[in-house]
From TrEMBL:
Belongs to the EMP24/GP25L family. Residues 42-125 form the GOLD domain. The lineage of its organism: Eukaryota, Metazoa, Chordata, Craniata, Vertebrata. The chain crosses the membrane at residues 198-220. This is Transmembrane emp24 domain-containing protein 1. The keyword Glycoprotein does not apply. It is found in: Endoplasmic reticulum membrane; Endoplasmic reticulum-Golgi intermediate compartment membrane; Golgi apparatus, cis-Golgi network membrane; Membrane. Keywords: Endoplasmic reticulum, Membrane, Signal, Transmembrane, Transmembrane helix.
Length: 232
């Protein structure tokens, strides 16, 4: 009976710390956005970053004119142009390490006077200070569980590392699925645009062929009518 009670208490403690660990996972700082960039317009977005972190930006033009391209730039908090790309449909750029302040992410469609563009971009932000603080805090929480670990014959540190690994893999999977959805949307828009063009020119060619056929039949009939008139 005492053994059962002891196991029940240890199991309760284990589940309580398990819940604490799950709550320790903070919401991801990654952000993504799909927006419509008008013709001849410039759109800029700002992302706050901490010192000595990493900032990764991935963008893709998923719909728009025939070129499906934009100008892209990243400007540091001190006004330094870190990245400049011209007439590109997609790209991935990383700023490492970052400076404390607001980074400016700009998409320029001023070279296009008629075609608006639909742009998808994702910002992946990692702050070194926050990551170290979270790891240190989690380590302090798990230090006091040495005795239940020995009694339950579980290595709680290994469990925590496994959960962290699963969490990182899930985040990477989510990011990859988001990027794949953007590629799928872009390919679908290209197919729809090409289908419209093929259908339009096919109908145009068919109409021209029918018009030419009627013209030829009419011309031949007129020639035969003229011959009958001359003979008579």
């Amino acid at each position: 009976m005492a053994l059962v009670l002891k196991r029940s208490v240890l199991w309760t403690v284990f589940m309580a710390h398990w819940a604490t660990l799950l709550c320790a996972f903070k919401p991801s700082q990654d952000s993504e956005l799909t927006f419509l960039l008008p013709a001849g317009a410039l759109e800029c977005f700002f992302q706050t970053a901490q010192k000595n972190g990493t900032l990764e930006v991935e963008y893709q033009v998923i719909a728009g004119g025939a070129g499906m391209d934009v100008d892209f730039s990243i400007v540091s908090p001190y006004g330094i142009n870190l990245v400049s790309e011209f007439r590109r449909s997609d790209g991935v750029h990383m700023v490492d390490p970052t400076e404390a302040g607001d980074y400016q992410i700009c998409f320029d469609n001023s070279f296009s006077r008629f075609s608006e563009k639909m742009v998808f971009f994702e910002v992946i932000l990692e702050n070194a200070a926050n990551g170290a603080a979270v790891v240190e805090e989690e380590e302090e929480e798990w230090v006091g569980l040495g005795e239940p670990e020995n009694m339950l014959e579980y290595k709680l540190e290994d469990i925590r590392e496994s959960i962290d690994t699963v969490h990182r893999h899930l985040e990477k999977s989510r990011q990859m699925q988001t990027v794949l959805r953007a590629f799928e949307a872009r390919d679908r828009n290209l197919l729809e645009d090409n289908l419209w063009r093929v259908s339009f020119w096919s109908c145009t060619s068919l109409a021209v062929m029918i018009a030419v056929a009627f013209t030829q039949v009419y011309t031949v009939r007129r020639l035969f009518d003229d011959k009958r008139k001359i003979r008579s």
